[in-house]
Amino acid sequence: MAPSHPDPTISRHVAVIGAGAAGLVAARELRREGHSVVVLERGSQIGGVWGYTSQVEPDPLSLDPSRPVVHSSLYRSLRTNIPRECMGFTDFPFAARPHDGSRDPRRHPAHTEVLAYLRDFAKEFDIEEMIRFETEVVKAEPVEAEEDDGGKWRVKSRSSDGVADEIYDAVMVCNGHYTEPRHALIAGIDSWPGKQIHSHNYRVPDQFKNQVIVVIVIGSSASGVDISRDIAKVAKEVHVSSRSTSPETYEKLPGYDNLWLHPTIEIAREDGSVVFENGKTVYADTIMHCTGYKYYFPFLDTKGEVTVDDNRVGPLYKHVFPPALAPGLSFIGLPWQITPFPMFELQSKWVAAVLSGRVSLPSQDEMMEDTKTFYNKLESSGIPKRYTHLMPDDSQFEYDNWLADQCDYPRIEKWREQMFYIGFKRIYAQSATYRDNWDDDHLIAEAYDDFVKFMS
Ligand code: FAD
Fold first, then answer.
1. 313 C-alpha vs ligand 1 centroid, how far in Å?
2. Which of 119-123, 351-355, 452-456 has the lowest mean pLDDT?
3. Total Cβ atoms within 10 A of residue 269
4. Average pLDDT of 45-71?
5. What's the rounded Cα separation, in Å, for the pair 300 and 27?
6. Are the C-beta atoms of 358 and 11 separated by less than 8 Å?
7. What was the ipTM of the complex prediction?
8. Which residues line ligand 1 (CB under 6 A)?
9. What percent of the chain has pLDDT over 70?
């Protein structure tokens, strides 16, 4: 399957949607492979989610589909949850810069440092010249067969110059998936009188001073952990409700005298009370939903070939190509619980090589068969659809290495894999201190030994 051919043969005209980390590296890989690239970015700068803004949406739950969308979901205190050495692109190390006051040298730096790194990356590879800023893609659809049978794509975009209607050979979707909130369903919430907010619209704790807050987290939500601690600095009480804990749980979290852990909420009542499954009741001012995000592609019209069903974007071969529309349509960056930048890079290399003809895809039927087998496997293991793009345990690096093999690119470094696993465990074991205390200095040394070849 997918043999490599020695020479790239075809140069395609490709639209990349979004100039976050995924779109930037996609543009670089496409151009390296000999394609012509236009990156369409609705914001005014690169970096996507890493472009922190104090602005929030007018609707704190972001339920109104016609609301003005704020892309970034970062809060002001955010530091990375992945160590910088394993977070960066494979050939452009996210190394600590010398202390000149302008950069954050910490291992888990502030969000400003990630944006600075992405700016360095864009500058190093002259990526900005490919980007059209303040240009929002409003429609991307396959060109009708009678107009063209070459699998081309029509892309309509809106900017201050009006609406552009253009034809491309391929479209790479790099629009991110941390902007469209998911919410918890809470019995009785319609008559509960307090305020609700989704973490997408959380920036700073000030507004919660002296309040009683219930923070709902799902899964291993790093932001839920951060935000509840951020708010606990000023709030009267913070009650975290987690569905991953046993129904009896009632714990005061170490290091705080106003932060408790509970199981799920049983009911919210008209009198302002919130009752947890453990039988405890609190009278809360605000419920904060740290309940994650949905994949959302309002601009994409695939005539039903790709759907989002319970947060499964499918059918997609290896999370990237819809078999019926490959290779003209591809998605970069759907997997989660991963170290994203290296994966974006490998997915982009694969797509670029497929588009040039240097690497072949299996037939449409074979891709569909493979995808169905994957979905059946999830189902028979009892894994819900919404976890289709979750890559737990070894699966992320197996996947990365599969992509690397397709493109004849080196596999993921062993130190990077180990650092990710150790770092991930550290988040659970020492959630309040993991960013500043570690015991894997030997892996940092290995990383920097490797970085030497990429740093001048
Ligand atoms: P984004 O960065 O979201 O970029 C998408 C871009 O597409 C945006 O610029 C947007 O404006 C543009 N766009 C969207 N729709 C359109 C349209 N219709 N037309 C034109 N442009 C459009 N990752 C880590 O590696 N380490 C971390 O510590 C970490 N912490 C995180 C903390 C939070 C709170 C969140 C939300 C995410 C975190 N991530 C972290 C994951 C992060 O999302 C990825 O690292 C990565 O930056 C995502 O890049 P992306 O390019 O896929 O998406």
1. 17
2. 452-456
3. 16
4. 96
5. 20
6. no
7. 0.99
8. 17-23, 40-43, 48-50, 71, 73-74, 78, 80-82, 87, 136-137, 174-176, 178, 223, 299, 333, 339-341
9. 96
Euclidean distance between CA atoms 320 and 335, whole angstroms = 10
What CA–CA distance (Å, rounded) separates 149 from 142? 10
Residue 72 Cα, ligand 1 centroid: separation in angstroms? 7
Instruction: Assess contact for 226 and 202: CB atoms under 8 A.
Output: no
- pLDDT, tens digit (0-9, with 9 covering 90-100), for 274-323: 999 999 999 999 999 999 999 999 999 999 999 999 999 999 999 999 99
Residue 256 tokens, joined:
């705080």
Give the DSSP per-residue string, 204-239: -SGGGTT-EEEEEE-TT-HHHHHHHHHHHTTSSEEE
From the number of C-beta atoms within 10 Å of its C-beta (0-12, 13-18, 19+), residue 223 rates as buried
Token output for 302: 């695939």
Which of 139-153, 319-333, 365-379 shows the lowest mean pLDDT across its residues? 139-153
- With a CB cutoff of 8 Å and minimum separation 6, the contacts of 84 are 94, 95, 96, 107, 108, 109, 113
